[in-house]
Write a structure and sequence with these properties.
The protein is mainly β. The chain has 2 helices and 12 strands. Strands 2-3-6-7-5-4 form a 6-stranded antiparallel beta barrel. The chain is globular and about 60 Å long.
Length: 184
């Protein structure tokens, strides 16, 4: 009888130890998210003014009344539900400005998705109007496949799609329509 009791106690101790061992994982991400609901932002910031510099030169400035930080998700992002005012500076210090009603910046891809009444004003007085515009921060490239209106000093160009580098030296309206004046 004593042998059976001793055997049963050894099995229970072993099972308990194995259970404790396997339930204690060192997962920093889970510890970070304790008390944070999966659908809630990690942090909320108000009245932000973020400046990005590289080698002492101002490259961009982002203003927004509200930012929601969802970097705790598997594909992290920052959401700007009340819109943004984003200024981009080229290598010569010229600035272009983008405003939008809503924006998302994705952590892993460095892609900015601007949506709703997007207005891009370039340093040379050109203006782009769109409902959606993407800005790739790594490649410093803007693009959309949505309808756009591009106003220059002398032309109004309608199109489906837009591509441009940050300096607007390679700006293209795709599938163009509208009134275009050509000097002969």
């Amino acid at each position: 009888m004593n042998l059976v009791l001793k055997y049963s106690v050894n099995i229970m101790v072993t099972v308990f130890t194995v259970t404790i061992f396997f339930s204690c994982r060192n997962n920093f991400k889970e510890v970070q998210n304790i008390g944070v609901l999966g659908s809630e932002p990690l942090t909320i910031a108000e009245n932000i003014n973020t400046k990005y510099t590289d080698s002492g030169r101002l490259k961009s400035n982002l203003l927004s009344p509200k930012m929601l930080d969802f970097s705790n998700r598997e594909f992290g992002f920052f959401e700007f539900p009340d819109g943004i005012d984003f200024t981009i500076y080229d290598d010569d210090g010229n600035k272009s400005n983008v405003i939008a009603d809503y924006a998302i910046i994705y952590d892993d891809t460095d892609l900015i998705d601007l949506q709703g009444n997007v207005i891009l004003s370039t340093h040379n007085k050109d203006t782009l109007f769109a409902e959606q515009l993407f800005y790739d921060q790594v490649r410093e490239w803007m693009f959309t496949n949505q309808p756009v209106i591009f106003k220059t000093q002398t032309q109004i160009i309608n199109g489906i799609g837009f591509d441009s580098n940050k300096d607007f030296t390679k700006a293209q309206v795709l599938e163009t329509t509208g009134t275009i004046f050509i000097d002969e």
